[in-house]
Prior knowledge:
This protein is α+β, with helices and mostly antiparallel strands. The chain contains five helices and seven strands; from the N terminus they run E-E-H-E-E-E-H-H-H-E-E-H.
Amino acid sequence: MIKLKMNGVTVSVDEGTTLLEAAQFMGFPIPTLCHMEGLSPYGACRLCVVEIGEGAKSKLVSSCTYRAEEGLRVRTSSARVVRARKMILELMLASCPQSKTIQDLASAYQVRQQRFRQEHETCILCGLCARMCSEQMMAHAIGFQGRGDHRALGTPFDMKSEKCRLCGGCMYVCPACQLRCTYTQPEQAICGGCANLSPPCLEKVQFDDMMCSMSPCVACEIKKD
C-alpha cells in the first residue's frame, strides 16, 4: 500500500492507483471531460489538474494519469488549481460554446465571462470517441489525424469506414455533441440556467423558485426583451 496526503488527509491506496482514483475514493470532487471508467487515461482536457508538492517546487499535474507516490502531498482544489480550471473552461467555451456539459461545468466553477474569440468547433480533442471505438467496441474505426492546428478526429483518409458498426458509442461519450443554444457574443456566451444559478445572459428574467429540469434547459427557450 502507498500512503499519501490528500487535502491534509492521509490516504492509503494500492500501487498503480492514479490521483484521480484516490480522490474519487475519498470523495474529493475533480472535474474531467476526457476520462471515463473502462477507458485508458489520456490526460487531454487538463480539467482534472491537481497541485502536488510544496512551496516553490509544487506543480500542477493531470490526476487521471499521475500515479500515487509514497509521501506525496496533493491538493485537489487549491487557489492555483481553481484558477487553472477556470482558464481551461474559458478556452473550452471559446471552442465549443454549444456544449451543455462544458456550459454546466463553467457555471459550477463560477465562470462568468469568456474572454476569447469563439470558434464554434465541434470537437475538443478529448479522444473519448477514439478510445471508446478501439477499447470497448474493438472497431478502431476512428482516430486522430494531423498535428498541431490541423489535429482532428475522423476515419482514415476521411472515407467511410467498413469497420464502423454505427453503434453510436462515439456520440454517447462525446462531451461536445450535446447541443446547447448560446449567444454569439463572448460576454453573453455563458448561460448557467441548467445549473440553477443566476443566468448572466438572462438578467431580465426572474426565475424565483422555479427549478430547471428540462433538457434542453428551459431558460434557453426564453429570449431577452
